[in-house]
Amino acid sequence: MILPFENRSQQGEYNWIRESFGILIVDVLNVPGIKVITTDERNLAFDKLKLSPNDILTRAAMIRVAEVAQANIALIGEFDVGGEKGNVTVAISARLIETREGRLVGNKVFNYSGPISDLQKMQGQLAWNILYLRNPSLPYTSDQLVRKATSIPPLAYQSLVKAIQTGDPKIREGYLKRGIQEFEESGEAGHFGKAIFELAMLNYQQRNFAESIKLFKQLSVDDTHYSEGLFYLGLSGYKAGDFVESAAAFNRLAESTQLFEVYNNAGVAMIAGGNKADSLSMLRKAVANSPNDATYRFNYGYALWLNQNNEEAIQHFRAVLRSNPRDGEAHYLLAKCLSATGQNNEAAQEDNEARKQLESYARWSVEPDKIPVLARLKQDFNKAAFYKLERQQSASDRPSAQQISQRQSLDKARQLIAAKNDSEAMIELQRVLAIEATNAEAHYLRGVILQRRGEADAAISAFQSAVSWNPRLIDAHVALGRLYLSRGDRALALAHSKQALEIDPQNRDAVALRQQIETGR
Questions:
Q1: CATH code at 35?
Q2: Any domain includes 268
């Protein structure tokens, strides 16, 4: 993780250099064999500790930030600026710190100096030295990393860094537009993805959705913020009334990113665009993986009602109202479902509650054709969950000795469970989870043991963790379906059953669960 460098000079106009190391070196070191925590992810750690990247921190505080971000190495440093205007120089001193030990890595200090126009070159050299110190066998040369670091023209690079650090929207917009123009005028191939993303986000925040759509669509899959850009492209399209654009963006993101808010928003966009049938599949994924989220339960119930599956929708709206009894829209839709299934007395009670809680009730009663789409979007991209998934995927792409050891522990746990030696099996599983808290199989096997012990609540929690980290783990969905059915929660049981059958329509356990739900035996 790269922390802001300290400005040792008295010249505040060069404070922009503080964050330039993180912005540039993250991209330069984005190579197989090393994982660098992004500036956004690092800032989440600052937020958790109620600190600001603008603070001057002690080494102990820097190490604490790195620990919270789960970085085992932190890059810290300082710089000094000197010389006259037109001949400005910069001197850099940097160190790598092991967060666990709090000591200097390799007992080395990296020093560079030269004209400020060579800042990117020096940062590229620093990146290569970090890479070489961590693993000398990696197949990269200093020249390769310096070329990558200097691929953005210096003026465009400075404009981007200054834009990111200013809080004034107008000044930020000016810097970003200038940076994009400077990139284009330099004749460099491609586009300035980072600046385009930042400008797109600025337009989104200012509700200029037509412009944000145009900018987000310029991003390519190789851009650092491509996934986040797709999320906000989906939101921009929705808010601009272009539901086809919105659904397409969320669906594209759902193919590569297992985030529940993405499933939810894809389903919402489909409903708004009139694709009621296909919305069910996406919304079911969100509910099955996060059943305690009232937004997901409401939206799935709404989609079921639109598809005239009133019996199942009733159970989801009741779950929403247990969470928030003052939800007027849930009362209104529950009344409609109850009326459609002939439960007229209960329908009248819910309609009366809707009348009390819903300001627009009278208008909807007079003009039912003016009722808007009631499905609810998730407005924020869950960066913390996204980064966890990225790290998990990155680790699975490169099996290590640690992963091989985890595999052996999981295999041993399965053997112990089969032999009914649950205590020893639990020790093996705790060993896996102590190293990789996101291991879905370990959570599932814990659930099997807990269910066998009769600890139903703990088993549900373990199975939910399993499907949270691997939504395609059929065994966990089936186990959850059975547990919810045994508790009388047919709606959630059915959601997990459908999710399992969507993954594998021929799975015997999933088919048997569906038959059990339908026949009651």
A1: 3.40.50
A2: no
